[in-house]
Every structure is written in C-alpha cells, then in structure tokens.
Amino acid sequence: MRPREAARRNPALRRRVSLLVIAVVAVAVGAAVVIAVALVQRWAFTAAATPPGVGTTVIAPHQSKAQRALAEDGSDAEIAATEYLAAQPTAYWLTPEQDPPGAVGRTVTALTSQARNEDAAVAVVVYGLPGRDCGSHSAGGLAASEYPAWVSEIADALEAAPDVQKVVVLEPDSLALAPSCGDGDQRFAQLRAAAHELSGPDTWIYLDGGHSGWLPAAEMATLISRVDAGTQVRGFATNVSNYRATHDEFAYAHELSGHLGGMHAIVDTSRNGAATAGAEWCNPAGQRVGEPSGTFGDDVVDMNLWVKPPGESDGPCNGGPAAGVWWPEGAVTLAGASAAEH
After folding, report:
1. Where, by residue number, is the active site (predicted)?
2. Could you give the C-alpha distances from 201 to 59, 156, 165, 273, 277, in angstroms and in order?
C-alpha cells in the first residue's frame, strides 16, 4: 500500500503526516525569513553607506607600533613624538609577519570594535602578496597557496562589522612594481581574487596607484585596468609610503582617473609635509608629517589619509632599522614641532 493511501485510511497517521508537513513548511518559512532579514540588513547597510570623504574620522589603532612604543624608554623628544603619532588617525598594516593566518581575523575584529566604539572608520592595508616588493627592503609575503585563505580570514572579519565604515588599501606597490618584478599576470589574478573576497558592506577598496614620480599615468592606468575588479574596487591609492607633494599627487590622481573612467582615489599624506625628498624613498632626511587624515579631497580624491604610519622605518638605509620597525629617531624628525605643540 502506498504511503498516501495508508494515510487516507488511517486518521492517526493522517494527522501525523499533516503535522509533519506543517512543521516542514514552518521550518522552510522560518529559514526564508531569516535569510530575507539578513539580506535586507545587508542591503540597508550597503544602501546607506557613503564613501570616505573630507571629515571622515579614522581610528588611531590601539595595536599600532606607535602605541606599543609608548611602553618603551626614550628621550623626552622621543616620548613626545611617539605620543603625538600614536594619537593620529592612521591606517593599520595587516602583514603575515605581524598578523599571520589564524590570528589576522582577531586583529581585524579588534580594529572594527574600536571603530564601532569610537563611531569612526577603520583603515587597513592588506600587505601579504606573494613575492611582495620583489625582494627589496619589504620582501616577504605569503606563499601563493596561503594567500587566499589569509585574505579570506580578513574578509570574514570585515564582513562581520557591516555597521563600520572600512577603508582597505590593497597591496601597495604591487601594481607599480609589476613590470620590474616580471610576474604581472599572477599579480593581476591574485589582486582580482582578493578584491572580490574583500568586497562587502561599507567596505571601500583602493588598489595600488603608485605616485606622481613613478610610472606615467597612462602606464599605471593600464596596470590597474588589468586587475579588472569592476565595481568591487572604489579606486586607487597614491603616494603610499612616499613623500611627494600633495598638489602633485592630486594632479596625478586626476590624470590617472581620467584614464580609468573617473575612478576615485585616496592620497597618503603621512610624510609629505616637507616634500623635499625627490627620488629618495628610503628614510630621506628632513621630512615631516603631512596634513591629518580627512583634511581635504575633491571630486576625484575622496580624502587624504595617513597610510604609512610615521615613525616606522622604510628599511635599513639612512640610519633606519629594518622595514616596518619602529624608529624613535625617525619619529622625532617626522613629528617635528607638531609633537612639541601636542
């Protein structure tokens, strides 16, 4: 006897079948409601999100090397410079050396929690690309097999904070160095996949845009175009870890944007207050911090941002320690009179 025929002849069985059907339908409806609510919430955050701009407040990360250096001994000038720089809104660099797989997600969660508590945005730099820096002072990065999972861990932590505005600078120097590194096709694919993974609610991604003294705008635009990340990327970041004048970077950003259909930009002003370094990029003497994050922008440049944390060395050159290491003497020079006034 078929189950349906048995249920028709047995009232008790028919009731059990009916209850089972109702339960299944209820579970399905409940699941649909949960999914619908989640989609609506995500849509609401995305629809309400506005890109970074003038006046955007970025956190001064509690995990920064400047903050950690506050516990160290030093001269009065070094302590004053460290205190000043630790208090400035600055991007946090996610590197596999400092925040390896299995730990980087917790770091991102701590950053977004701080941003939520302070009603501010968080800016992070994702810097772990395989073959990073082509073996120069910042050589390192992850193996090609490890990079996607590391990026995914970052992405999951960012997506878990849809209510926080997130600025992501994706792999500085990766595109401008591609012609000399000789691994462009691999880099384009890795950056495309990373941008896809990192995209999410109120997350604004900026690719490497070099700077005004590096590659011609047309050549840089070709490199950015080959990433082909579509609308998942807001724009590009220029002058990261460099010392070029703000005026020159704005002009360069406009020229580059013109080649890219109006793509937006952010400009690193963390160390361009003097802008006298010329072609010297590794701990040049006599430089100063630039205008604070969120001070200015225009129809192309969303905002200026301290991307490179002042006080961290560019590498073992001009008296500095290894790249990324806190350098008290360099911090004093960069902070200058600002630290004394602070």
Report:
1. 133, 173 (proton donor)
2. 19, 11, 8, 34, 38
| Percent of the chain at pLDDT exceeding 90 | 79
- Structure tokens of 253? 């950003």
Total Cβ atoms within 10 A of residue 26: 10
d(CA 215, CA 294) in angstroms, rounded, equals 26
pLDDT for 20 beyond 60: no
Burial 242-271 (b: 16+ CB within 10 A, else e): bbbbbebbbebbebbbebbeebbbbbbbbb
Taking all residues of the chain, what is their mean pLDDT, rounded to a whole number?
A: 88
Domain of 25? Answer: 3-42
Q: What's this model's pTM, rounded to 2 decimal places?
A: 0.86
Residue 18 and residue 150 share a domain:
no
**Pair (37, 127) in one structural domain:** no
Is the domain of 69 the same as that of 12? no
Reduced to 3 states (helix: H, G, I; strand: E, B; else coil), residue 166 is strand
Query: What are φ and ψ of residue 330, in 5° steps?
Result: -65, -35
Q: Is residue 173 domain-shared with residue 259, that is, in the same domain?
A: yes
Q: Which of the residues are catalytic?
A: 133, 173
User: Quick one: tokens of 201?
Assistant: 């609610």
Q: Which two tokens stand for residue 74?
A: 């030093």
Among 294, 292, 116, 262, CA closest to 202: 116
